[in-house]
Each structure stands twice: as C-alpha cells, then as structure tokens.
Design a protein that fits this description.
With about 475 residues, the protein is of the alpha+beta class. Helix content is about 35%, strand content about 20%. It binds flavin-adenine dinucleotide.
C-alpha cells in the first residue's frame, strides 16, 4: 500500500459513499476468488460506483495515484481475468439500469451491471429475444459478457456477444467517457472502436453501457437427441441440417459416450434419451418465430435421410416443451457433473468446423496415448467448431498427480489445435490462465499490435494489468 492509497480511498468514500468502498476482508472475499477457485487475489478495496460519472471519477483518481483497477461484473469468468493482484476491484454491479427498449429498432440499451437473465427477461417483455445464453446467465453481467466476448448456446444462429453489440459507452484509462451508444446497423465513419473493447477483458477500458441487438422471439422449437456412430458422422449430420434447415438450426451440440454416461450417473432428473449406447451424440434444436411452422416434419425428414445414409443410428425427438427441456438438461448438466469424476483438465478451443471431428479424434488418441486410462470428455458447441476438450483423471490415479500434468496436456491439445489453424481460447478468454500460452500460439505481429494498442489506450497500465498480455514490466513476482 502506498502513502497515497488511504487518501485515495477516503476521496472515493466521500464521492461514492463509504458503504460503496469496501475495505474489510470478509466483505471483500467474494471479489477476490474466482469461480473455479484456481486463483485468489488481493486488493486494497472493492469500489462500487453507481453511475458512469462515478466510474469515470474512480478511474481518473486511480490514474492520478497510479493505482491499478480490475473491473468486475458477476465474477463468473473461467480464466482468472477478474482476480486482482493489487489496487482496486471496480464492481459494475450497481450500474444495473435498463436505459431503453426499442422494439422497432430491435435494440435494448443497458448498463454494464445488468445481469444477463434480466436483459433476456426485459427483451421478452417486448416480445423479443436477446439470444446470448450461458449457464451462468443468472449471475454474469452484460459488461462481463462484452468484456469476454461470451459465446454460449446460441452462437450458431445469432453469433458471439461481439455480433450482438451495436454500441458502447466506455470509461477510458484517463477517466474520459467515450459515448458510442449508437443503435445503428450501418456506420462507416472510421475505425470500429467498439470492437476494440469487446473481448478486451477489462484491459483497454471499462464498459459502462451498451446498445444490444434484439431478434424476433422464437414461437416454435423442436429438439432432438441423436446417436451417431462417430464424430465424423455427427459432422456429416451437421452439414445436412445446415444445408436443409438454414437459420432454423439454432443449436448443434456434441457429447461423446463418456459424457452422457456421467450425466446419467450424476445429474438429478437425467433420463436416458435412447435405448442403446452410441459413440457420439448430437443435440439439435430447430426454432422459428413462426408459431405455425412444422419444424418436427423438417427434422424428421432430414433425420430419415441421415438414418438411411448410416450417419445416424438412433434419435429421440421431443414431443413437448417439457421434453425439449429434458433433452437440453442432459447437455446443460455436463459442465457441472464432471467434478464428480475427480480432477479435470480443461481446454476451451476452436477449430474450423470442417476439422472439428478430426480434432476430436486426433486429440483423443493423443491424450489416451500420453496417459492410459485418461477419460476424454470432448463436448460442446460443435456447430461453432468450439469444443470443451476436457480430461477426467484415470480412475486409479491421485487427483493431484493428474492435475500436475496440466501443462503437458496443454501442449498436446494446443499443438493439435494450432496445427489445424484453430484457437486456444474459443469463448472463455485469456485472463491469467492462458496468458503465457498466448505467446506460444498467437501470431507475433498480432501480439505486437495488441501491445501497441494497450500502451496507447492505457499508457500508465492501470486497467487490469497482467491479464491477457504478458508485459514483463507489469508482472508482480508471484505471477
Ligand atoms: P467477470 O467474471 O466479472 O469478468 C470477466 C472479465 O471481464 C474480467 O477480465 C473482468 O475484468 C472483465 N470485465 C467485467 N466487467 C467488465 C466491464 N464492465 N468492463 C470491462 N471489463 C469488464 N462463457 C462463455 O463464453 N460461454 C459459456 O457457455 C459459458 N458458460 C458458463 C457456465 C458457467 C456455469 C460458468 C460459471 C461460467 C460460464 N462462462 C461461459 C464463463 C462466464 O460466465 C463468461 O465469461 C461471462 O461472460 C463473464 O461475465 P461476468 O459478468 O461474470 O464477468
């Protein structure tokens, strides 16, 4: 703590109210530890400004005092990006107003602290859809979604968060406010500044509000759970649906046999969807804003052809909304149940969709060869080329001994991803957990441009220092 810090905290208390400058250890605890408990941080205080002007005030004063700031939304990030190692945590939770819903422009303007579920609900009240959908939707906040360019379940049809953002309001590292809150579909007036901040994980600016796209709300949907003989057959099936169903294909999710086995073993209420077992499973959803459309008929037609072609072995098609939800429950439980199988080593990666089956097969073989008994749980957003390539420990192995091999498996999996021209972080970001990996796999010119942007927009390096980019000068010895 520098001499300036008590003065700074007093100044902030005067402006924000002392109840919004949290200094006691017990109240700070929830802000210092991240979701998976992989990282624990320290901070001088947690500040909770209630408006854009107050955020700007905090940033200005921190810039003056040279005190780092870690912005935080719902703290559900999975890469350690919101964990502080000094300075202040700046929580956006109090900026939680819906500023405007404009159904004719199909936009909603929200503050960064709005919980994702609240934004979805507000859109629904206007008979619209805000399609971003994550299992953390009840606690993550829009500013965090934007800062991480979150993906989730509906990317296939509606895109990542980046595709849903039309405008932003951002507090810059010197405390100036950039008002880019435009709800325009076309705006070619120079560089696309908003896209600099989307996915920048709090290192370039603090998002305080956003204009987001809305869509017509689906009025009909049908879900099927399908058994396939292999990941390659699942890819052929995806191709058939993409060609035949076009935009009606809103999800194509993948699970291997091991994944379904552990869901059925551990998830409450999970019911076997098919009579036999299969090597690969796909969950497919078709949806449409037209309540009259017969999606089931289309689904059955494509599946019938796929059965004849031998790329589908069995299929369960939901006959009601309750059954739609029951099939989704199998997929959504997966992130949660893996912990009951012991330690897991996780990789959130992307390859071109055309290579996703090759990736699953190649990486599975490589990991099984590297550690006999390792149980591969490669599941996820197959239609986006995004696989959560997770490994569960061998049954007879000690958890600690398995987790000690994380680096080794990173190299195996990420080298394969890289050789396929893929990405070592598909949707969760870089944060701390992949910061040093990034240097190994990202194009050096791209890294150089990123550092140039960081130095230009944040010359004092006060915004989330040490995250995303490894700048030697800014790292404390412990990192
Ligand atoms: P935080 O965790 O608070 O912050 C994340 C990063 O953004 C940090 O670097 C932080 O400094 C920065 N940040 C936060 N707010 C701002 C702001 N206003 N301005 C600038 N920077 C800011 N992610 C997916 O992409 N897809 C999924 O399917 C998915 N599923 C998940 C399921 C579960 C059960 C959990 C726990 C997490 C999941 N996640 C998923 C990860 C996580 O929910 C997302 O990354 C989410 O977008 C983070 O939002 P948050 O508000 O919690 O951000």
């Amino acid at each position: 703590m520098t001499d300036a810090d008590p003065e700074l905290l007093d100044l902030l208390s005067t402006r924000l109210g002392s109840q919004h400058v949290i200094r006691d250890a017990a109240s700070m605890e929830g802000y210092l530890v991240e979701e998976r408990k992989l990282y624990r941080g320290t901070a001088l205080a947690v500040v909770r400004p209630g408006s854009t002007e107050e955020v700007a005030f905090v940033v200005r004063e921190c810039a003056r005092a040279g005190v780092p700031i870690v912005p935080q939304g719902g703290n559900t990030g999975l890469v350690g990006g919101g964990v502080p190692h000094s300075g202040l945590v700046l929580s956006l939770a109090r900026l939680d107003r819906i500023r405007e819903v404009d159904p004719f422009n199909a936009t909603i303007t929200v503050e960064a602290g709005c919980i994702l579920k609240t934004v979805q609900d507000e859109a629904e009240k206007a008979d619209c859809l805000f399609p971003l959908s994550l299992a953390s939707g009840g606690s993550c906040r829009i500013g965090g979604n934007i800062a991480t360019n979150a993906g989730g379940l509906n990317v296939l049809r509606y895109g990542n968060t980046r595709d849903l953002v039309l405008g932003l309001e951002v507090v810059l590292a010197d405390g100036r406010v950039w008002n880019g809150l435009k709800g325009l579909r076309k705006d070619n007036t120079g560089y696309d500044l908003k896209n600099l901040f989307v996915g920048s994980e709090g290192t370039l600016g603090i998002v305080t509000a956003a204009v987001l796209k809305l869509f017509p709300r689906p009025k009909s949907r049908t879900v099927a759970f399908i058994g396939c003989p292999s990941p390659h057959a699942a890819l052929d099936l995806f191709d058939a649906f993409r060609r035949r169903a076009g935009d009606q294909l809103t999800a194509f999710e993948f699970m291997p046999r091991f994944a379904l086995q552990i869901v059925l073993k551990h998830a409450a209420g999970a019911v076997p969807p098919l009579a036999g077992e299969h090597e690969a499973y796909a969950l497919i959803e078709l949806s449409s804003p037209d309540p009259e459309i017969d999606l089931r008929e289309r689904l059955e037609r494509v599946l019938g052809e796929a059965l004849e072609a031998g790329i589908v072995e069995d299929a369960a098609i939901a006959a009601s909304e309750t059954q739609n939800d029951a099939l989704w429950h199998l997929r959504e439980s997966l992130a949660h149940v893996q912990r009951f199988e012991g330690g897991s080593i996780k990789h959130d990666v992307a390859v071109p969709v055309s290579k996703v089956a090759d990736f699953i097969v190649t990486a599975t073989q490589a990991c099984e060869a590297a550690l006999p008994g390792v149980r591969v749980c490669a599941f996820g957003h197959f239609g986006d080329g995004n696989i959560h390539f997770n490994l569960s420990q061998p049954v007879a192995m000690e958890k600690a001994a398995f987790l000690a091999q994380w680096e080794r498996f990173n190299r195996i999996v990420h080298d394969i991803v890289h050789a396929m021209n893929g990405s070592i972080s598909a949707e969760h970001g870089v944060g701390l957990i992949k910061r040093d990996e990034l240097v190994l796999y990202k194009d050096p010119v791209a890294l150089d441009l990123m550092r140039t942007l960081k130095r230009t927009l944040d010359p004092k390096n006060i915004l989330n220092p040490g995250k995303v980019l490894a700048l030697e000068s800014e790292l404390p010895p412990s990192l």
